[in-house]
Amino acid sequence: MKVEIWSDVVCPFCYIGKRKFEKALAGFAHRDEVEVVWHSFQLDPNSEPLPGQSIHDSLAKKKGVSVDEARSMGEYVTKAAVEVGLHYDFDRTIPANTFLAHQLIHLGAHHGKQDATKERLMAAYYLEGQNVGDLDTLVKLGTEVGLHATESREALTAGTYANAVRLDEYQAQQIGVRGVPFFVFEDKYAVSGAQQPELFAEVLEKVYDEFKPKLTLVADGAVCGPEGCD
């Protein structure tokens, strides 16, 4: 079974949704048969963060609200994150354009480390106050999940996976993704948002039952089994 997930590194509900989906997947009897593929989605592809700008300032400007109101929004999301074991630190969070970060995730996928790269970048952004739009920071984070520093730097500098990011975003447009996280199961069923683990579990069961191989018995005759022959 294939599950494709569109998300952004700097989307707070994407990280929460990742945890909720992971909980559902951990309890799914056929989890070893599930392939999870992460797709790029930039909430603000044209963002140009200013040096020293806080996430509260950035959100206030983007939403057209006061800094205090932006801070309150952050507090609401922080509470939601705590429920899944994540402790966001918005006071340390550094606004970033995620185009390079998504390219690093594609490099991680090339080496079978896509989920590990995605997780490391999200933790760096939301929990540790690291700049995931900075080349040197991304190279360092890549090495922490087993990517080679020289290869990472060369790939990000050359834009080796830039088109892969753009293709993900194009595909999102084609299937009508308007917000993330966005989960697609076997190219047929979609779940939008950081839903509860119970809902993800229900969808996993439904999709598996529908798409698992089914045999049609066309002849029934004498057979032998563990308890003897008929």
Automatic annotation (TrEMBL):
Superkingdom of origin: Bacteria
- Record-annotated DSBA-like thioredoxin domain positions: 3-204
> InterPro entries, from UniProt?
DSBA-like_thioredoxin_dom (IPR001853), Thioredoxin-like_sf (IPR036249)
CDD domains in UniProt: DsbA_FrnE (cd03024)
The record's PANTHER family line, in alphabetical order, gives: GLUTATHIONE S-TRANSFERASE KAPPA, THIOREDOXIN SUPERFAMILY PROTEIN
Protein name (record):
DsbA family oxidoreductase
Q: Which organism is it from?
A: Hymenobacter negativus
> Which lineage is the organism of this entry classified under, starting from the top rank?
Bacteria, Pseudomonadati, Bacteroidota, Cytophagia, Cytophagales
